[in-house]
Amino acid sequence: MLTEDQVLQALRGVVDPELGGDVVELGMIPDITIDDGKVAVGVALTIAECPMRNQIEQDTIRKVSALPGVTGVTVEVRAMTREQRAEVMSTARRKARENAEPTLVNPLTRVIAVGSGKGGVGKSSVSVNLALAIADLGHRVGLLDADIWGFSIPRMLGTEERLVANDDGIIIPVETQGIKLVSTGLIVDSEETALMWRGLMLSKALEQFLKQVAWGDVDYLVIDMPPGTGDIQMALSRLLPQAEMVVVTTPQKAAQKVAARVADMARRSYMPVVGVIENMSGFTCEHGDTYPLFGVGGGRELADSLGVPLIASIPLDRAIVSGGDQGRPVVRTHSATPSAAAFHDAARGIVGLVPPAQDETCTARVARLVEALDAARAEPAISD
Ligand SMILES: Nc1ncnc2c1ncn2[C@@H]1O[C@H](COP(=O)(O)OP(=O)(O)OP(=O)(O)O)[C@@H](O)[C@H]1O
Ligand SMILES: [Mg+2]
Fold first, then answer.
1. CA of 150 to the centre of ligand 2 (A)
2. End-to-end CA distance of the chain
3. From CA 105, how far away is CA 240, in angstroms rounded?
4. Which of 190, 210, 283, 350 is the most exposed, fewest CB within 10 Å of its CB?
5. From ligand 1's centre to the CA of 288, what distance in Å?
């Protein structure tokens, strides 16, 4: 007699590669019905357009068909409820943490990844000034430029020093303006040298920066993320499961699209989004008039849709551009300006945030957002 246990056992061989676990431990099998040799398996997927849907369906059929006594297998795909989705993401996050490989980053270091739903919104400018402003509050700060080939931090901090390794092959970060810095830009001498390195996988480079750098006991490690939602995010969450993400956005109300990308990024990497920083908010001219060149309200809208605080709004400021080009960050060189004040607000906001509890499902928020976006798109439900 074929039993449900046997079927479940077989299903342990079906893995969701994105979530990094088998469908049974992830709670994706809500029901199994056995009628003689005919087996119907219910499979709950996180989202309707799950890219793994086909593979999971096929694997399920293959594994269950292989059991003795099975004459037919049907798979009924269902969409998870919000609670189920939050639960499964929390399980995936816990697993990621359990399987995390050791790095040289102290587990007590708060890791703040500065990301965005699109490029060019000021992630690097924010990372630099935020790191300095956190250091100004009296904390030890590291800054990791995770934009491996698009590095811009060394120029923004005006350092031409080079990373060196000690006798054990451990890389010592460059100390500049009171923070520790690591960037590919501190290794390669020119674009040509950079090209020679291109064979190296980006995620491998990130791995080296976390496993072979003497970060010491920095209180905060700020990470400037590259644009996009790819390998680096996933590698980071695998290597540093304590990482929290702060999202930089402009005031423009293209929020739906950006929110969808941020949600996707967080969903794939199980990285909790803890707050939003709006950058390039209004421009104030020398007569004191303020012009909202890039619109109004985008930061608030994204923060609300993610259910997280809007940590700060950084105004448009020419000094941010020139300071970035000349290695003279505004928080140090124009400390009395509104933009410097806004970066200090951001630093205080982040330090004051309670970091998510170790097994908290950050992702419950993202699950809620994904749900809202799905509903907005009014896609027909799957299953049936
Ligand atoms: N608040 C601001 N006011 C004026 N200019 C700004 C502001 N923030 C950033 N910039 C300028 O906008 C440009 C893009 O900024 P930055 O390089 O920090 O963005 P990024 O998100 O890191 O870009 P990428 O996605 O390419 O990594 C730079 O020239 C920078 O000086
Ligand atoms: Mg950048």
1. 7
2. 29
3. 8
4. 190
5. 23
> What radius of gyration do the chain's Cα atoms show?
23
Asked if 251 and 295 count as a contact pair (C-beta separation under 8 A), the reply is: yes
Q: Which atom of ligand 1 is nearest to the CA of 128?
A: 18
Which positions ≥6 away from 318 have C-beta within 8 Å? none
* 221-253: burial string, b at 16+ Cβ within 10 Å, e else: bbbbbbbbbeebbbbbbbbbbbbbbbbbbbbbe
CB 220 within 8 A of CB 140: yes
Three-point CA angle 364, 113, 109, nearest 5°: 95
Sequence length of the chain is 384
Question: Which protein residues are within 6 Å of ligand 1, measured from CB?
Answer: 116, 119-125, 147, 150, 152, 227, 279-280, 314, 316-317, 320-321, 324
**37 vs 97: CA distance, rounded Å:** 40
Residue-level pLDDT at 198: 60
Strands (E), the chain: 15-16, 21-22, 31-35, 38-45, 72-79, 110-115, 141-145, 164-165, 171-172, 174-176, 179-182, 220-224, 244-249, 273-284, 290-291, 310-316
Nearest-CA residue for ligand 1 atom 31 is 321
Q: How far is CA 119 from CA 65, 212, 246, in A?
A: 47, 28, 15
d(CA 264, CA 270): 10
pLDDT tens per residue across span 55-111: 899 999 999 999 999 999 999 998 888 778 778 877 777 777 777 778 999 988 999
Counting ligand 1 atoms within 8 A of each CB, the residue from 321, 343, 345 with the most, and so the one to mutate, is: 321
pTM above 0.85, yes or no: no
Report d(CA 310, CA 169) in Å as an integer.
41
Give CA–CA dist 180/62, Å, rounded: 52
Ligand 1, atom 12, residue with closest C-alpha: 122
